[in-house]
Amino acid sequence: MFRDESVTSVAFLKKFQELKKKFDTKEKMRLDSEYHQQLLAYIDTLYFSCNREEVMSEKEFDNMRDGQMSDLNRLQKLKNGVSYKKDKHKNQKRDEDWG
């Protein structure tokens, strides 16, 4: 929702609060990976920063957008880093057969 420039602050807050409520109704699972822990911390932090009495202005939302996209990119790199290492080692094992 942060990448889509047509999303307004009101639409974002409404959709994010709906998703967070659905997420909270799900049974909690213990996930040990750093990515999952960082993701849960990110969601909770974003929810508490957005869950306030006053309505967020469009300018505040646009200012928040860049920082949040940066945080999301870091999370994506963390997620992809694990699979990248696995793929790297798979290829290394395959190359050993070729001498």
Helical residue percent band: over 70%
Whole-Å distance between the termini? Answer: 49 Å
Average pLDDT, to the nearest integer?
80
The total of beta strands comes to 0
Classify the oligomer: single chain
Biggest sheet record:
none
Give the overall form.
Answer: elongated
Q: Outline the low-pLDDT stretches.
A: none
Can you count the helices? 3
Derived from helix and strand composition plus strand pairing, the structural class reads mainly alpha
| Helix-strand pattern | HHH
Proportion of beta-strand residues: under 5%
Question: Measured on Cα atoms, how large is the radius of gyration?
Answer: 19 Å
Describe the structure.
The chain has 99 residues and is mainly α. The chain is built from 3 helices and no strands.
What distinguishing features does this structure have?
99 residues
